[in-house]
Inverse folding.
């Protein structure tokens, strides 16, 4: 058998053509594209994880607020009052008096707080407490107001911080003197 000869006007084949391989430039381009796509995918995944964490914390805060309302509903009408250790820098109180600022939570008017009278052991609703869940501190503020005679409102405000940003969630319920007796 005789070796094949290359036709007369055709140049000699390169090593890449002879072996069917790829060049270093093609490898570099492919790697650059892979890195760009990976970085983009990582950004999307991190953003999704942040959203999931924020949603979970909001859900935990809502649950804490609902637990506070349910606890208040378990008390008798006479027991439904807050302890008097209200601070002056409270987020929902008007600084000049013992009034809940109705405009902050969407009420039509400000409402007076119902506090435990001195020496009275009832009024089990603590004004402020903290709960730590998954390494996050939730500040829980409880307010009991009397918008009108025979009707009390429990408002629970839950505050926490996520990534340096203050967050809050609140809920409220009306409780009548008739429904708790």
């Amino acid at each position: 058998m005789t070796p094949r000869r290359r036709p007369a006007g055709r140049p000699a084949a390169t090593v890449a053509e002879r072996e069917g391989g790829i060049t270093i430039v093609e490898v570099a381009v492919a790697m650059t594209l892979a890195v760009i796509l990976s970085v983009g995918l990582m950004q999307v995944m991190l953003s999704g994880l942040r959203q999931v964490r924020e949603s979970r914390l909001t859900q935990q805060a809502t649950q804490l607020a609902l637990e506070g309302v349910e606890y208040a509903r378990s008390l008798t009408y006479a027991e439904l009052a807050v302890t008097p250790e209200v601070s002056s820098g409270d987020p929902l109180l008007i600084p000049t008096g013992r009034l809940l600022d109705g405009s902050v939570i969407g009420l039509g008017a400000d409402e007076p707080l119902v506090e435990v009278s001195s020496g009275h052991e009832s009024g089990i609703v603590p004004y402020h407490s903290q709960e730590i869940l998954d390494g996050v501190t939730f500040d829980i503020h409880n307010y009991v107001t009397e918008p009108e005679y025979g009707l009390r409102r429990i408002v629970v405000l839950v505050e926490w911080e996520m990534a340096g940003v203050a967050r809050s969630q609140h809920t409220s319920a009306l409780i009548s003197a008739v429904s708790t007796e």
Remarks:
- The radius of gyration is 33 Å.
- Residues 24-73 form the longest helix (50 residues).
- The chain has a mean pLDDT of 82.
- The longest strand covers residues 136-148.
